Request: fold
Amino acid sequence: MFLGAAILVALLIAWALGLRAPQIVRIEIRGGALVFVALAVQLLLFVEPPSLISRGLEAPLHVASYVLLMVFLLLNRRPGLLIATLGLGLNALVIIANGGRMPISLHAWTATGRDPATITATGAYNNNVLAGAHAHLAWLGDIFALPASVPLATAISVGDLLILTGMIVFVATGGRDPWSQAAALREPLRVSSFRRLIAGRAVSDLGDFLTMTAIVTWLYERDHSVALVSTFLIVRILAGSAGGLAAASLLHRLPYFRTLAIVAIVRGVLTVGVLVSAVSGQIAPVFLIVCISAAVGSATSPSAASLVPELLPGRLTQAGNSLHGVAASCAFVLGAALGAASVGELGIGPALGIDLASFAVAAALYRSFAHSEDSPTHEQHRLASEQQVPRREIFTALLSNRVLLGLTASFTIVTGAMGLLNASLPGFLSERLGEPAAYGYGLAAIGAGLFCGQLLAGIVPDDRSARRGISLAFAASALILLVVSSTEIAATAYLMLFALGCADGTTEVARDSLVQQQLAPRLRAGGFSISDALQRLGMATGFAAAPVIAHLAGPEAGVKTSAILCLVGAAIAGLLLAAKLQRGAADPAAVAPPTY
Reply:
């Protein structure tokens, strides 16, 4: 029965990502009758009132229903459906190993709101058997329990997740081969300048996340002060926000690749100062220099995001934004892990030395563009630098365009929610799950989901429904956070945090595409800069609010407040992004020369 629910969920997600009704109708399906026969068998077996089928026939008929579903999926032989077939196969395997029923722990059973007596009386109920010492392959059973507060709460298995994943891939790609869809992700990499951009961003972001993780680890190991760590994170974010606001009207004055190279060089020099101060144990200079570095680094993301539509043709912009986000996600996961490991094993000095090397490599990659065949002429540089872009004009563009206003407002609120969640999560997971390492696992789950969401956004058929998808993704994030706040099962918490990352990843790609569409090229860098600065302010506000909320109502309240903020962001996005799309290219200034 989960297959039917998975199809409905997949259709909703695909619609949010941009799939249109005609594309859904054109999906060819073979052997659809097998699905209805299999579902009829399961309904006959396990839906109240109890069936008249003898107990001896229940197990073989249950397995037979899975065989019918697997035959249906194999008849269609699509990569997405092959993933779903694997999920059905795992479910069938564990059901056969346990006498025809799916094992479930008593904890997972009661977490969904069901009466424990219904399964403890006989050790089995409907299609479930109580997991215990006798259970086989229990880790493939129903280990993810949606809490009773969620409508239609139930427990699901690893196989169920593979079924859902396969159906999402199948439907989101319009029934076409996702590998051919994914070819669009390889095509931007054929552009040498884009390859340099992605490589440089990945390396510089790696250094950025490494620095943050290394210094946070160093500060905590030194003084064991949560307040000191929180202060460092908030001040660093505020410095980046101030830098972004200050740079908004200046970024167009230099070619973007030159800006990226200069920023990498300056941050490398500043890292030397951080290294010397940290090794000598001076906290105040570390704070000051890191804040300066964060302010300078605020020019990196706007410049890079503005370059994507100038380096790639329009049909590849969505894929380029996806790769841009994927590179940042990979840098986040690797940088955080490398920063923590290097400080723990080598000390703060060698850790920051690795960071220094990353900025040097990034600067070399950016500067190499000047010698490539794609390099713009000196005349293009001169014309681009002469374009005057007052900060007031950028603010006017953001406030007067309904779509841009909706993006800026909703993302600022939801980013504040993520800051509040990030700061509340360590205490919540430790208190709820009783695992001191839960926060690290939670961040890893979010990072992995972010990667998958950005990758999925790059293979969907088009980005025409990006605005609709943003609102729905924010609403989904709110629901996910409510589940997180209610669950007491670690597997469910990590699964939900992974799903949160997926939703966040798709919105980041959609946001970049929409800003690029709505703003003329000469305004893009400044628009991204101001938008990013406001989001950093939202993040800092969330960080600052977390300890207050936790003190007044506990860490669970921080997670629930994050969910409420996501709902507010979804409402704003749904209201303001419903405006008719107006392309930035309609602006006469859109024909201005690119500022590489």
In short: The first strand starts at residue 102 and ends at 104. The chain is about 75% helix and 5% strand. The radius of gyration is 26 Å.
